[in-house]
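Replying to the earlier thread about multi-chain prediction with a worked example.

Input:
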Amino acid sequence: MLLGRVIGTVVPATQVDELSATPLLWVQPLDRNGRPEGDPLVCADGTRMAGPGQVIYWVASREAALTLDPWFVPVDDAIVGLVDEVRIYPAKGSGR
Amino acid sequence: MILGRITGSVVSTIHHPVVEGRKLLVAERLDAGGRPTGGYVIAIDAIGAGFGETVLILDEGNGARQILDDSEAPVRSVVVGIVDEVELGAS
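Result:
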């Protein structure tokens, strides 16, 4: 799973039937320090509670479909949970 | 599986049920010399790993679901071991 920030909602005018009940959000992937990294992607929202500005963690491929109920849907990226806080432990002195 | 080092954790109250009661760890990925590659992964902790430890991370969905004992878990990365030592061959 990786971090991301919701930057928008996606509302398709037409879609395959299997996606009709699936909220879609536009997500900017983040690095582990919270900085944008890579290209935005469209995630299905498995929590159904994320919105623009929210930091989330997401998963790709087959695991993405498993976030949804019913789970056999054609999605390739999905939000697994919302992030309250990322605790970065203090860096160790010499070893890093 | 991949090698990583635990650098943090993610706190999440709203999440998929599989995350309930489990710890989400942030692990930086390591290269062959044990240095961070710049990549990272958020993995579910299956063994009680802590900060700074070098860990073995299973990064494959079917194995992850087997470890979590949940055939519908949307999880690919699980911390499955704590590494004492990595020995590199003569180079």
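DSSP finds one helix and six strands in chain A.

Feel free to reuse this layout for your own posts.
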